[in-house]
């Protein structure tokens, strides 16, 4: 096999998460000895910092030159003459993939939140499979393919602490319903002692003023953490997390961190429901502002009053996610590429 070309774009609200997981996959492929190129549609400091952590070189092309969703720009990617293209973009469209197919280059795309279901040689869906299978030749899905950074295999070991003193709040790249502020307010009403709270502020938050207001008026010590390049440091710091229902659920489970997981969007519900049904998290679905606030206060009050539940969630998490999903994903990608070559 010659070069794998990983392509990711960040010029959308959910694109940053796609780019971050592509960094993990590309770095894993490179460490496995597979010649690898990693491209971004435009420069992003958060992704650049994350890639630098794993010594992964970046090729940056201005979005004025190409956008991975547009058919007329696919030729720019083909100029790299890769053996296989692995696309991770919520905006990829069928017309774009047809240009790749006409050249005969194998195309595999990474599915999940926001992904379009297009024709390709393969689709890797590293969480709950969609109800309608993508029209691809090869398909693999499941949380066993969650591409976690290698740090998550290096957990703190026994999370025997049954008291919550440090809480992480994270909703991903966006926070349209101001869940972060509501979480601070809920901690004010439920926690029996003063806590240290850190809020991960994503690149597309439009509610920073609200979060800062709640932080300034909280009885807890609340610190805003703007655009973190990966959550490992924050997850290893906290005792407990309040999180949206994306890939972070897998990161928390692997690192034995108990959490309340929130299906902020309906598309997140299957992942939240899975982890909650196994006992790795407490699951909530965002409905409306008043109902959600009351539900969150209720669940937090329960967890503060039943500390043994923390230990149960910590023990269950690594049984669901072992941190080796990126390696499995690369093995699968390589197998699909090799089948196309034969």
Structure description:
The protein has 342 residues and is an alpha/beta fold. Helices cover 39% and strands 19% of the residues. It has 12 helices and 13 strands. The strands form 2 sheets. Strands 3-2-1-4-5-6-7 form a 7-stranded parallel β-sheet, sandwiched between helices. The model has no long low-confidence stretch (mean pLDDT 88).
What is the distance, rounded to the nearest whole angstrom, between the alpha carbons of the first and last residues?
11 Å
Total strands: 13
Q: Main beta sheet, described?
A: 7 strands, parallel
Mean pLDDT: 88
- Provide the helix percentage: 25-40%
List the helices and strands and how they pair.
Elements: E1 4-8, H1 15-31, E2 36-40, H2 45-53, E3 59-60, H3 74-78, E4 84-88, H4 94-103, E5 107-110, E6 120-125, E7 136-141, E8 166-170, H5 179-190, E9 196-201, H6 208-216, E10 221-226, H7 232-237, E11 240-244, H8 248-254, E12 259-263, H9 269-278, E13 282-285, H10 289-305, H11 308-320, H12 325-341
Parallel strand pairs: 1-2, 1-4, 2-3, 4-5, 5-6, 6-7, 8-9, 8-11, 9-10, 11-12, 12-13
Helix pairs in contact: 1-12, 5-6, 5-10, 8-11
